[in-house]
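Hello, quick one for you while I still have it in my head. Could you read through the record and tell me how the tokens relate to the sequence? No rush at all, and the record is pasted right below.
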Amino acid sequence: MLLKKLLLGISVLLIPVDFLAAENLLSEVLLDQFLDLQDITADEIESYLEQFTTNPLIWENCSAVEIEALPLSERLKEPLINLKARKISIRDWADFAQKTGLEPEEVEIVKLFFRITQKPGSNRISLLNFTSLVSDPEPDVNKNLVRGKIYYKDGGVAGVVAERDAGERTLWDYRNVSLRIPVVSYGVELGAAAFRFNWGHGLLFSRNGMPRKSINVSSTILPRTQQFGVYLGSDENRYMSGANFTYKKSGFTFYSMASNHYLDAAISDSGHGSFRTTGIHISDVELSGKNAITEKTFGAGLLYVSKDNQWGALAFRSQYSHPLKYYSGNNHIQGYSVYQKFSSGDWVFSGEGAFLNSGEFAVVQGCVFRQGGIKAGLQARYFSDQFFTSMSGAVKEFPSTPSNERGLYAGLSTKLLRFYQVSAYVDFFAKNRSFKAGVNPPKGTEALLFVQRRWKKQHFIDIRFKRSLTYQSAGEDILKNQISFSSRYYFMKNIWLSLRGATVRSNSTGIKKIGSGICLYSTFEQSRGVQITAGTTHFYCPTSDTRVYLFEPGTPLRFNMVSLYGTGYRRFMTVRQKFRKSIDLVATVKSQSKRGITENRFHDSFIIEFQMLVDL
């Protein structure tokens, strides 16, 4: 049976698929921006980055503030911002590399987030196919993903995506289409089918569902570019489906949208609905809840832009086929947003206020100070008790619904000497009130210190110290300390050794527990386009609150963030072959031997992944 499914996976891979050579270099480099997060899945990270790479910034038109908001390291953003400040025209990527002084690998990373000019380029067709097979609890296809895109020379994009998760009965349980058509000469951009809307700080609408606090001060506090985005991700519920329209004239931008989308939900006996967001459809209950609720959304907004200054307002209304629990039993919601961002010398201020017809509201306001190699930021947030919209993506501590939160984030980043980077943040958070009688609302602090040392030959070591303390009811305070590191040493330019590790110490209800994990692997590149990575991970995490969140290399752009629990070890190997700079084949094998702390025997499992990328 497993052989049959293996052959099925290989046969599917014979379909041409997406190739961007740079993307194979990025998994580990970009992933370091997300190591501070806990319990974030690979799909969420991929969907997050997909929104940036499918909707790139135009270098000749973008601002330094927009560059700072990108999920890139400070080391990469610094030469880009300096070049932008010099106001030098760029002819092509070779000219860009010369004037920034970036290494070829670093330029390849930057190319994913930018187009040099708005002028027509060349048409390109690309597709991506990924298949994985797993043995636990029995051999099965774990995931099938096919994504196709057409990039038009005028900046237009058309794409399709199809996905099947493990255990789902339909071959392509999730399917989607998205389209963007720019009419540059008239200042018009049209979008159709699946799309997301990035507005303000994500209080009402966000282009991604993964807001984050991080040591990257600018990308935490400053907003993304205000725009509709092509959506080809695998989040099956957090997008809109319909049409959108953008018109730009004399500094003003007008946005409008109309969406008719079917959402997964659970319908109670009283007829009230509750959203389901997993996108998994295996059991009869999950299948019955698929597309159970219709959401019709209409909205319009106006934005005025003057250099780095922006002011805007937005209004929307969503109508549902059933009354919803999160909207106090109403079958509709309407909201309004006011947004601003302005600069004054070395300071950038930005904030948003959002209001719902139910009387609920949310406010975010922050500022960033930039001078030389120093960046410092402060952001305050407040969400009323029942504030909720299905497309929100604002920075929060408590992921639960509804919001019911207030907080204050402060971050600092600076470059010391030539090869040291030091960053830190502290976040104070609290729930406004508890919905349980006699129980105090939780509150706490989270702090992180990051130190990086780099050498001339690209050797590096990063160390993170993270401490979080949550005060709850008497005797239930939770203290967690975490130390993690990542390092790399180059024996030669094409041979290097990497070491990553993390230790978590948890002290809840007066009981101290420690969990740890370490990952060692080596990579070898041949001149004929073959790259081999192999290594092992060992871990001991006795309880759920000492589980370790660790990076493990694997198939490019799958972002193998493993959540380690129990005790055991893992082995992995990835082989990648490039042909004629247009075909990229990848095969990954991973095995695991693990037992729970209370179990007597180890459980063995393995997973096989295939990916083929082709540029047409």
